[in-house]
Input
Amino acid sequence: MGMREDGRKRAGGGGRPAWRKAAPVLLVALALVAAAVVVGVAGHGGSAGASDAPAPAGSAAQGPSDTPADTGEATKSSPAVGPSGPSQDDATAGDGGSSPSGGDGTAGGAGYEEGVVLLRVSDAQSAADIDAALAQLDCVGTRSVSDQDLSNGFVRVTTAEGVSVEDAVAQLGDVGLDSQPNYAYALADDEGGGQDASGPASLVSAELGTGAAAGGGQTEALAAASLTNDPYLSATGLGSANYQGFKDTKVAEAWDLVQTDKAVSVAVLDTGFRTSHEDLRDNVVATYDATVANEANGLTGEVTNVTDVRGHGTHVAGIVAAEANNAKGVAGTSHNAGIVGVKVFPTRTFETPGGTTKKKDGCYTDDLVCAYNYVIQNASSYNIRVVNLSVAGALPSMDAILASYIEEAYDQGIVTVCAAGNQGPKLVVPFLSVPADLPARFVAVMNVAYDNGEWALSRSSNYNTPTQSSDTSNKNICAPGASILSTLRTGDSSYGRLSGTSMASPWVAGVLAMEFAANGSLSAEKAIDYLYESATDLGDAGWDRQTGYGLVNAYQAVSLAKESAAPPPEDISGAGMAAIPSQTYTGSAITPGVTVTFGEATLVEGADYTVAYANNVKPGTATVTITGIGGYTGAKSVTFTIAKPPAAETAPAGKGKPTDKTTAPTDKTTGKGKPTGKPTAPTAPTDKGRPTAPTARTVPMYRLYNKWSGEHLFTTSYSEYSHLASIGWTQENIAWHAPASGGTPVWRLYNPYSGDHLYTADPTEYSRLGKIGWRQEGESFRSADPSSGGAPIFRLYNPWLTAGTHLFTTSYSEYSGLGSIGWRQEGTAFYAAK
Output
């Protein structure tokens, strides 16, 4: 398990490393992380071996080995091909060609675009603000940036004639303006011809074909043969380094836990790639040429064309996501992550509209910014969680703009993985490398080689300087990067080997893709932490400068990610729902509660599910549907019945306008003060059974309360009184006694819009409300004559309920109390029997 130097676990993404100063001398050519093809191209040969042998045990990797690591690999049927001469490490090839800028920097060329600087701008600055500042400066040629996109956080500013990039940056800094060169990360030509060196077409087919084993040995299948049938993953032959790496980094075991299968995508920022390759094409998700998309370049062409003219990007893409289990070639470590191929190296050298030159071997800061903008903007569409950036170089100062975009991607949950860098004639390890040592949160990978039964840092691999520690470095993990077999750009079925930290970086990128596939909610910070915590320790115990926390362990990293994932949601369609009893029609929506259980647990509405009702107003069959939320998904429905209400026992024969023209009480709406005569309180039933009227000349008027709508109902029907109580209404006993005969008829109406019942002795009101949609329910009871001496029945209106509701009471204290809190007192409506 990866540990800090003080013995504690390292919080991989928790803090941003301190700013580091690079060496003061601008190095000639930026290191090509893997430029030398060590062997094997279908139709082409390669250079002799690379110096990937590990450093002797207990020593630092300080210089190139004199012994090629890949000698004697041609089969008897195919002679060894490629130029003779001293062996080359991948990094040394970076110095073999032209510098990307062709400028007048130290010792052969500067690592930036000549004639332009990138001026950083803040959100608060406008183009007019910048123009005003530039107008005061003699060191720059640009006078207006109104045509540039300030949202990138910088603008391109050309230098004045005779002013170097270094002087322009210094003079801008003197007046408080923050600028930097447009740095170039180079893929220089290989001295031996690289991947495209000519040679017999039989080399790969002879060594790797299914009908012939390399060196005459018997091909050994990968331990997890049930997971893949890719023929080149064998213990012998050109795929032996892949085979050993898969075994010791536990990739096959990780596949038992998760297979990415394009659930997660990795953005490969490189030279492009061969999208038609047999081992890549089915995993391609999207392509984008950032050099064409960058308007500052003035290039034309299809922005989706990522033709690889160098071959580096095709090889890197295969290490991440060559298709597994397709009976062809090799397999990437991710088990089929989606590939988002982003081209950041131009196809040719060209002149920008501003008159500066960008060379085909240069990957420039502003093009990388364009690439990161694309990745961030499309992350959700393609589920991009990892960026692989297999470039490296040493610079006199740090690329702050690139660092800010790597950091922005991290904040969006995207982990950048880059190469630690390689040794070359002018790059002596260890050195501070860009982007590996930028002040941002990401992963930089060192290269280890397998020799004599153990993994050790490759002699060519960069590692941590004496001043670096686990808290101040991103170079904290290592992976196989020596003689890795992968896809080549030279043909749809071409495979070959490359070495370097460029190959180690995508190995780790594939493992991170599996972490995110195992736990879709995993944060970038946790993904890095799990990578470091699970590493297999190499070298000195705990973290050390040469190997960081050790060799990546895919199985353990994915296990930690999977264990931290929330359990998948349960399908609520398997839940139990208690039957809902029959409901009685009220004229308003009926929403009975539901009881939902899942196993032995009772679920909670609002936390585990939501409830929706349908057809729940009119009599008939209604539906209630629960939809899972939180830890539940899916939906389930049950039905319940809405029954017609029982007919009123005293309803008249017709529902039209009553024939009796008796007028309403004269004081129904006129008085809001205290009525004459203090009313009496309601009479309670005499026993728990059916109440009886005090005399045969009266009938009891029962009062109920609907707790769901806030309505009060009055009825002389004991069966209605009992039935409504059985479905949840609150019985409030006898409100008053009405005359059994004589007096004035009182009619009952139902408002279907609010669910309110109204009682009126006014035939005009009864008729008018019926015409506007109220349901006329006939005579409900009779009101005593005012002169009979019966208690007055007061009418109140509650204005706060959905559409209002009326209450009738003989209690003056209730009438007065409700009036004091805002109910509208509508006076005496009727009279009770004496």
About this structure: The chain has 16 helices and 35 strands.
